[in-house]
């Protein structure tokens, strides 16, 4: 068993819509919500959330839209072999976000 720990999220540019994004970070098959908050350009959140998983899990970062379907900012897969701290850039729907996370035992 491994642990996925979310460390931080930085918004450089919101999606193509107007104003702030309602950002949701969803972990794994069971759709466990990590984060659900407004983010505007320049906002940065330090996050200390973690979840355990077995071999691998998907992580989705989405922008919640009230009038239409959610926009996908990005998706990536974490594996138990990827021990250590990592960063990933997400740029779906015209956005630019940097997410930091750690995989541990």
Report what the structure shows.
The protein is mainly β and about 100 residues long. It has strands spanning about 1-15, 20-25, 30-40, 45-55, 55-65, 70-80, 85-90, 95-105. The protein starts with a strand and ends with a strand. The mean pLDDT is about 90.
Beta content comes to: over 45%
What is the count of distinct domains?
Answer: 1
Report the end-to-end length measured between terminal Cα atoms.
Answer: 7 Å
Total helix count?
0
Strand order of the largest sheet: 4-1-8-7
- Give the proportion of residues in helices: under 10%
Shape: globular
Radius of gyration using CA atoms only: 13 Å
Question: CATH fold name, please?
Answer: Immunoglobulin-like
Q: What is the ordering of alpha helices and beta strands?
A: EEEEEEEE
- Superfamily at the CATH H level? C2 domain
Task: Let me know the average pLDDT.
Answer: 89
**Structural class assignment:** mainly beta
Number of strands: 8
Q: Give the biggest sheet.
A: 4 strands, antiparallel
Please identify, by name, the CATH architecture: Sandwich
The CATH class assignment is Mainly Beta
| Uncertain stretches | none
How are the secondary structure elements laid out?
Blueprint: E1 2-13, E2 21-27, E3 32-39, E4 44-53, E5 56-63, E6 71-79, E7 84-90, E8 96-104
Antiparallel strand pairs: 1-4, 1-8, 2-3, 2-5, 5-6, 7-8
In short:
This protein is mostly beta strands. It has strands at residues 2-13, 21-27, 32-39, 44-53, 56-63, 71-79, 84-90, 96-104. Strand 7 and strand 8 form a beta hairpin.
């Amino acid at each position: 068993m491994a642990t996925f720990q979310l460390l931080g999220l930085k918004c450089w540019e919101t999606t193509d819509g107007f104003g702030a994004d309602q950002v949701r970070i969803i972990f794994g098959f069971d759709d466990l919500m990590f984060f659900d908050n407004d983010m505007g350009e320049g906002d940065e959140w330090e996050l200390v959330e973690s979840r355990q998983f077995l071999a691998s899990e998907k992580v989705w970062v989405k922008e919640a839209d009230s009038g239409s379907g959610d926009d996908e900012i990005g998706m990536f897969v974490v594996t138990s072999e990827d021990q250590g701290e990592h960063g990933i850039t997400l740029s779906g729907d015209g956005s630019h976000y940097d997410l930091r996370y750690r995989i541990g035992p």
